[in-house]
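Continuing from the previous page...

OK, I double-checked the sequence for Type I secretion system ATPase against my notes and this is the correct one:
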Amino acid sequence: MEIEKRHWLATTLVPYWRTYARVMLAALFINIIALASPLFTMNVYDRVLPNKAFPTLWVLTTGISLAYLFDFLLKTARASLIDYAGRKADLRLSQLIFDKILNSTLASRPMSTGEYANRVTQYEFVREFFTSNTIGILIDSLFVVIFLVVIYMIADWLVIIPAVAFVLSVVIGLVAQAQIGKRMATAANEASRRQSLLVETISTIETLKSLRAEATMLRRWQELTKYSSRTSEDIKHISSNAINMTMLLQQMVSVLIVVAGTYEFADGKIAMGAIVATVMLASRAGAPLGQIAMTLARFRQATMSLRILDKIMEQPDDRPSTVGFVNRQIRSGGFSFQNVSFQYPGSDQAVINQLSFTVAPGEKVGIIGRIGSGKTTLGRLLDGLFQPTNGRVLIDGVDIRQYHMAEVRAAVAVAGQSSDLFSGTVKENLLLGRADASDEELLAVSRMTGVEEFVSVHPRGFDMPVGERGANLSNGQKQALTIARLLLTRPKIVFLDEPSGAMDLASERHMINKLTDAFGPETTLLVATHRYSMLELVDRLIVIDRGKIVADGPKNAVIEAMQRKAV
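Thanks. Re-ran it with the corrected sequence; updated C-alpha cells here:
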C-alpha cells in the first residue's frame, strides 16, 4: 500500500498557515484604516469649514493621526510576517527540491544537465511569489469591495465609475497574462536550451579550444540569445501596455467622478466633501489594480514554474515509499544476475541482453570485453543506480529492489571511469563516503592507492585543494583518489571500472601490488578492464560481447581459450 502524501508545496506552506492568517488579519485592518483619510477630508470640507468648528478639527486630526500610527505599525508587522514566512518556506522549499535531486532515480532524469538545472531554478519564481509584495497586492485587491461599499454609501450611483474601472482592470490583466503566458512558456524553453548549451560549453571548454570550435558555439549562443531577447521584448511590451492602460483607467476614474459629482452637487444631491472623499477612495481602491497586470503575470509565471517543479517532484525516488517495507541488511558479498536485460532511457537498443551469472562471496572476478559491450552498465545495475528492464539482480539471494538503496550502496562500492571529485581538499574528498574514518585508516588507503605519493610532496599535505571536479590533479591522481575513497568505506562488494585507465605503468604496478593485499577473502571484487595486467587481481574471468556472456571460467583457462580462438 502506497503512503498517501500531500502536495509538496502544501507540505512546505501549511506549517505557516497561522502566519499567513495574521497577514490577512493585518490586511483587513490596514484597508479599514485606509478609509480614515477620505472620511477625515469629507468631514473637514462639509462640517469644519462651513461652521469653523476648530475643536472638531483637532479631534479629527488626533483621531486620524492615531489611525496612521496604527497603519504604520500594521504595515510593518505585515511585511515582517510575509518576510518571515517566506524565508522559512524558502529554506524548506530549497531543501525539499535538493533532497529530491539527490534521491531521484537516474532513469527519471532528463539527459541534459543544463536543462535539468534550469528546471530546478524555476523554484526561484515560486519562492519570489510567496516572499515578495505580490501576496500583499493580491490581498489588497480582495478588499476593493470595502471601498466600493463606502463609496456607494457616500456618493450613491457614482460607485458605478470605479466599479466599472475595477472590472476593466481585471479584464486587461487577464488578457495580458494570457498573452504573456504563451510567451513565458516559450521563454522557459529557450532559457532551458541556453542553460544546456552553457553547461555543456563550460564542462567541455578544453575540447572546444583544442578543436577551435569557439566560433561555432558562439553562433549557437547568439542564435539562442536572439530568440530569447525577442520573446523577452514581447513580454515587456505586453506588460507595459497593460500597466499603461490600467493607469489611464485610474486617471479617468478621478476625472469622471469629479465631472459627475459636479452635476450632483449642482442638484444638491451631494456635498463637496463627499466628492473629494469619493475621488480619494476610488484612488485607494485602484492602487492595487494599477499593478494587477504584473501581479497576474507573476502568478502565471509562478503557476507555470510550479508545473515544471511538479515534474521534478513526481520523479520516482530511490527510497522505499511503501508501508510494508522491511529493512534488510546485506551480510555477505554474493550476488547474481538472472536473465537481466537493460536499455538506457531514451535508447532503443539493449546494452545488456538476457545476461546471467553468479558470483560467490569473496570471489575475485575480472570482466573484459569490447567498448560498449556493457561492462560499465553491470556496475550501475549492481549499485542500484538503474533497475533492470527485465530479469533480476540478487544480493545475498534477495532481489536488490527489496533493499533500501542506502544499504545497497553501503555494501556495493563502484569506482567509475569518470573519477568524480568535488571542490575542497584531498581529505574532504576521501571522507565523503565515511566521515568517521580515522587518520590511520586514511593513511592506510592512501598508501595502497598511491595517493600518499603526491600528497606527501605538497606543502599542505591532505589539505591540498583538488579544484573544481579535481582540476588541480592529473587523471591518474584523480583515479587513485577515487579508489582510495572507495576502500575507506569498507564495502562488501567492490566494482572497479578501468581502475588504471589513466595511470602510467609504474603507478599501475604500484597499485596492483598494494590492492592484492587490500581486499580480504571476505570482499567480493569485480574488475572491468582492457588491461591484462589488472587481471592479476582476479581468479575468474568473464568475457562480455554485445551484452551477452561469451566466456566464463577460471582466468587462465579463459585466456588460453581466447588465444586459441585468435589463432
